[in-house]
Amino acid sequence: MNFILAAAFLFVLGAAAGIALGRWPAAARLAGYGSAALASLSLLLESLACLLGGASSSLILPGTAALADFSFRLTPFGALFCAPISALGFAASVYAVGYAEEHDDKVSRLVAFYNLFLLGMSFLPAAQNAFSFLLCWEWMTVASFFLVALDHEKSESRRAGYIYFVMSQAGAAFVFALFFLLRAAAGSWEFEAFKAAGPLLPAGAKNALFLLALIGFGTKAGMAPLHLWLPYAHPAAPSHVSALMSGAMIKTGIYGLLLTIFSFLGGGPWWWGAVLLAAAAATSLIGVAYALIENDIKRLLAYCSVENIGVILMGVGAGMLFRAFGREELALLSLSAALYHTVNHALFKGLLFLSAGSVLKAAHTRNIEEMGGLIKRMPLTALCFLIGSMSISALPPFNGFVSEWLTFQALLSGFNLPTMSTRILSLLAAAALALTSGLAAACFVKAFGVAFLALPRIDNARRAVEASVWELSAMGILALGCLGLGLFPGVVLGLLKPAIESLNSGPAAFLPNPLLAPSAADGPYGQALPAALVALAASAAAAAAAAAAAARWIGGPARARRVPTWACGLPELTPRMEYTATAFSKPFRLLFSFIYRPLREVSQECVSSPYFPRNIRYSSKITYLIREKLYRPPLRLFLKVSHMARRLQAGSVNVYLGYLSAAVTALLLLSLWGGWR
Amino acid sequence: MSAAAPPFWMSQAVTFLSAMALVSAFGILSLRTLPLCIRAYAVQSLVLGLAAFLLAIHPVRAHVLGIAAVAILVKGLAIPWFLFKIIEDVSIKRETEPFVSYPFSMLGGVGLTLLSYAVMEPLSGSDPFAARGFALALTLMQLGLWLMVGRKKAVTQVVGLLVVENGLFVAALSVSFGMPMIVELGLIFDLLVAVVVMGLLVFRIQSTYASINTERLSRLKG
Hints:
Largest sheet of chain B: none
Shape of chain A: globular
Shape of chain B: globular
Number of strands of chain B: 0
Number of domains of chain B: 1
Radius of gyration of chain A: 27 Å
Oligomer: heterodimer
Order of helices and strands of chain B: HHHHHHH
Order of helices and strands of chain A: HHEEHHHHHHHHHHHHHHHHHHHHHEEHH
Largest sheet of chain A: 2 strands, antiparallel
Strand content of chain B: under 5%
Helix content of chain A: 55-70%
Number of strands of chain A: 4
Number of helices of chain A: 25
Structural class of chain B: mainly alpha
């Protein structure tokens, strides 16, 4: 059975069902999302089969004569990206059956564009020529634009959609230029031809192509300072779409970047890796810095995606550095780390966005300062969010730990690089990664603590109810995935191997066990095995359980007493006494004030003396440096020039006719001067 | 020009009529009251129709004859009558304060005429008749456009457009003794419809702004 064809058919069917059943929202949801879930499941099976060594079925449709065919076939490398995309697609579709009743007034649009978006995105890694790739690329972008701008009545959504569309298309222009240049060099649209012709290009051309790929794919991936669209677009879309955009779509940028650099160009000089590593370190720090002080839960997660893209790109950059200096085994370690983190991020970011969506649906606010106490009302959602938070903060036994651990190993192996500058760079990147993971943990302590613990702050949070079975089962699948990928890293690394070999177009000499010390020859400087840690944790837990049992045996059965929290003698505890998110992030705001440039304003209204204030107003905001310093000035210049150009359009009929007349006269003069040549 | 050369009086007559068309174009450019402008346009159309008629009788070309008749009827009589009706209904008689002053618009017209003839000069070696016809056609088009640029009243701009169309008529006549019958007839009826539509537009402008100055229509811009 041709799973790829079946998936394409099911996606189209789902979109059609969404449009046809628009009057019966519940049926439209069930049919549309059900069909998307089935399609994603079949693609997931196909990619896993491909990674396990099976041959992929292919889908080739005849194209126009001038261009190439529509050719789709999974390579192991493509399958490695297709697998998390379709796994997340499956979970998000199941989730949406229950969740999307929020958006039932626009059910047709949502279901149709959702299916089309998934179609474009999950076929992208299977594209086998530039034409099919670019088609899927634009398809994905345009469909997701309509999803971002779904609530087009809100000016906030329109603005988000506009920023997203403009930045994506600007990035796409670079991707188009890249592929057109490769097409000119290879004489064919096929990726096979690119792989043959690319490595033979002169160095200058390769550098230009690398920069095009970095900007074009970097925009989609959300690499700083091209990440500006993420914090706008992700909160505006419905949560299951945000999960896909953040967990899966930005990975297509990583896919394109890796494909171009390693497959088409066959690696490059060391400075490529250095540039990428520096950009990645900056990306992860910027992402986590803004995530830390953000109080909008979805925007917080969006900034966190920027951070994780930075972590992934650190692995890629380190891999390029190692390869440039001929340390093949370390390059493979770095690439494994990057790809592992790519898969992991899809799972835990998907999980976090889905659980945030359920919270949103229950509490009707995105501001975590208004939530609180949700763990009592939505215990399972809280558990899922907690698992996601632990994964993203790289705590064992969840998957985030393994990939961040591998990335650390790779970066610390920078000791083995021959030149001092690259050694320092790689260690600086390791330091940046350490800072990032620490801040990310702080960020999720804040998000979980303020949103789920203590007392509810608004009535909606007080009335919140647990999410539906659809939502919980989708989150459960992803949570289990997070746990599984953390407990069995060996299996995952085994799947990564064929993918990396297909990326390099040849067998690769892997380290026997990348989880252990990367290079025994250079001396052991770090060993850990998650399984060993788990065993340690398990034995500690067993010891604790035994101690508890012993205590109970000695002291008799325990009696549970439910009493209020001790309030230092105050009559009662109110939500106004709670620790707020802003207060939690205050030390960081002060510590990193050179990034945030915080502004604080306190105004007091007094009756007679300053000791008896009637009310105190406090406001605090930060400056978004990249937006203000990097984007604003050129934008302002552009608008100024546009305003000047607008004077041409005077609105007077006579002036327009004058332009016409002047043009005709000028052409006549030109012909007179040229003398009818 | 075809092999059978026309008699001397006839080529003289065609040249005279062409000159008249040019003079009437300058007339439209310099006259200040709208009825006179329309009358000058009618004269121009009649003169050009007559020239087409002369070209059609020796040797006899039936379709040019038909075109000449329709041109005289529609452009020489129907359209001027309709324009008169419009200016009577909106009761606007004079073009006050034009965009381009009258002396300057005459000067510009002279310049455009010289330019048109200079552009067509290199052609006169191979086919003098077509070159002269083209020069006249180009001049009429340029002058019509120049008229539209310089005036504010919608009616004058309509007249400018009609002069441009007369230029096209001359061009068609001089290159192949008229386009195919059906095209030429279609063009003339298009023109009729266009003038009716523009007439309605003039009424709308009048009723909206209590003026037919097109400078009031300046709000439609980005």
